[in-house]
């Protein structure tokens, strides 16, 4: 079997093989080749597993993204996608061979982070990926959706933050593509765990709404100067349920304003917020705390470190301290022990022979890397071993982010 990159004229072969692996048939693209999720694939980063007689039996691709790390640091990250093996060739090592070939190629290209969305949670941990961001759905019955007045008061008895002074304009998706692209790009640069959406995605309508040009209404929030700084993309479906595909906002006040807008929609029985961020304060803003029902609480972005020192020194840090991390990478057959030293928000990470504070798998390091999973949680779960009292607590303090990481992007 050979693992090779696709050529420019093999996109249809790649797409057909991938769909066959999942028992599906491709949608019909528009005349210019857009309007389907795979129209943003980067042909030069697609891999085919081919048998000795030339038959394609497996696929794996990658996108060129930027991932925002804690501290608002955007770095390159390979977005692994389109991974599949024909049913006739499963359990023969095809997937493992493609993953090994892909990781080696990413390293050779100078990349130190890889991310993916896992179709099955059991598959990708063995390749060194760990769940790093989480998402959920919030459903709010319309008749229980009243928002309470803020209770916090300043020193002079006034609210800590004044009321929203912006405006909301209702547009159709087809009218505001440039606004969506601009607002999302500003948002993702400040949100840990967020991925870039290259212009190619928007131009070709590649992905899920609002990237896709599927008919949607968009509530666009503008600040006091008229500059767009948030949006909520939504549609009204069966059962009078208004579904919000995603809410993008520069701050909590803008998010609340957009939430209030969709929650006040007439002739709606309930509002569902997809990709609702963990620990978001909106539930606390309802007059009825039980108004919001959380469901579909699940993992989203999985992270894989390809170069531990580079990855750890790239992100921002918010507590000083030292940790010795003993990291196993079974899939690549590697092992390293590193001294992580953080001073004034900057990290140094070098090999060391010192006794470890924590021993962990590279997939567990991926889970804690963005600050969305506490190292102490993995210690308690039996995944990470703490070698001295206080090591887990120090790791929690070191790896925390300025706010919980969250990823909206589907790929």
Q: What's the structural blueprint in terms of helices and strands?
A:
Elements (H helix, E strand, L loop, with lengths): L1 E4 L5 H11 L25 E4 L5 E14 L3 E13 L8 H15 L4 E5 L3 H4 L5 E2 L2 E8 L25 E6 L4 H14 L8 H6 L12 E6 L5 E9 L4 E9 L2 H12 L6 E7 L5 H4 L7 E7 L1 E5 L2 H7 L6 E9 L4 E10 L2 E6 L6 E4 H8 L5 H6 L4 E2 L4 H9 L12
Parallel strand pairs: 4-5, 11-12, 15-18
Antiparallel strand pairs: 1-2, 2-3, 3-4, 5-14, 6-14, 7-12, 7-13, 8-9, 9-10, 10-11, 15-16, 16-17, 18-19
Subunit structure: Homohexamer; trimer of dimers.
InterPro entries: Acetyltransf_17, Acetyltransferase_Eis, Acyl_CoA_acyltransferase, Eis_dom, GNAT_dom, NAcTrfase_Eis, SCP2_sterol-bd_dom_sf
Keywords: Acyltransferase, Transferase
What would you say this structure looks like, in words?
By secondary structure, the protein is of the alpha+beta class. It folds into three domains: 2-111, Aminopeptidase (3-Layer(aba) Sandwich); 135-297, 3-Layer(aba) Sandwich (Aminopeptidase); 307-399, SCP2 sterol-binding domain (Nonspecific Lipid-transfer Protein, Chain A). It contains eleven helices and 19 strands. The strands form three sheets. The protein has a seven-stranded mixed β-sheet. The longest helix is centred in the N-terminal third of the chain and has 15 residues, at 94-108. It is globular. The two termini are 28 Å apart. This is Acetyltransferase. Pfam families: Acetyltransf_17, Acetyltransf_9, SCP2_2.
């Amino acid at each position: 079997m050979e693992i090779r990159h696709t050529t420019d004229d093999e996109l249809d072969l790649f797409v057909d093989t991938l769909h066959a692996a999942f028992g599906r048939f491709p949608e019909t693209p528009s005349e210019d080749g857009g309007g389907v999720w795979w129209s943003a694939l980067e042909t030069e980063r697609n891999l085919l597993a081919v048998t000795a007689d030339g038959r394609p039996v497996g696929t794996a691709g990658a996108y060129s993204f930027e991932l925002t790390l804690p501290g608002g640091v955007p770095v390159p990250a390979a977005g692994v996608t389109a991974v599949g093996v024909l049913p006739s060739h499963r359990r023969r090592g095809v997937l493992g061979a493609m993953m090994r070939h892909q990781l080696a190629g990413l390293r050779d290209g100078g990349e130190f982070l890889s991310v993916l969305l896992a179709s099955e949670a059991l598959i990708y941990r063995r390749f060194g990926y760990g769940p790093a961001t989480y998402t959920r759905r919030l459903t709010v019955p319309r008749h229980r959706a009243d928002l309470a007045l803020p209770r916090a008061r300043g020193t002079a008895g006034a609210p800590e933050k004044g009321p929203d002074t912006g405006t909301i304009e209702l547009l159709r998706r087809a009218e505001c593509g440039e606004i969506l692209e601009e607002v999302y790009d500003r948002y993702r640069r400040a949100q840990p765990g967020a991925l870039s959406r290259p212009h190619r995605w928007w131009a070709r309508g590649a992905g899920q709404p609002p990237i896709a040009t599927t008919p949607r209404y968009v509530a666009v929030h503008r600040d006091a100067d008229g500059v767009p700084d948030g949006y909520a993309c939504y549609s009204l479906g069966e059962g009078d349920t208004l579904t919000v595909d995603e809410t993008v906002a520069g701050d909590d006040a803008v998010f609340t304003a957009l939430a209030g807008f969709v929650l006040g929609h007439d002739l709606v029985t309930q509002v569902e917020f997809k990709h609702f961020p963990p620990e978001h304060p909106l539930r606390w803003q309802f007059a009825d705390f039980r108004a919001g029902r959380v469901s579909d609480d699940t993992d989203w972005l999985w992270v894989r470190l390809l170069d531990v020192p580079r990855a750890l020194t790239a992100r921002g840090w918010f507590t000083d301290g030292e940790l010795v991390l003993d990291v196993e990478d079974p899939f690549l057959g590697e092992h390293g022990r590193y001294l992580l030293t953080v001073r004034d928000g900057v990290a140094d990470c070098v090999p060391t022979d010192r006794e470890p504070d924590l021993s962990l798998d590279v997939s567990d390091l991926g889970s804690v890397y963005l600050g969305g999973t506490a190292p102490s949680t993995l210690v308690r779960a039996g995944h990470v071993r703490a070698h001295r009292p206080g090591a887990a607590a120090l790791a929690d303090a070191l790896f925390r982010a300025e706010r919980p990481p969250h990823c909206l992007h589907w790929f």
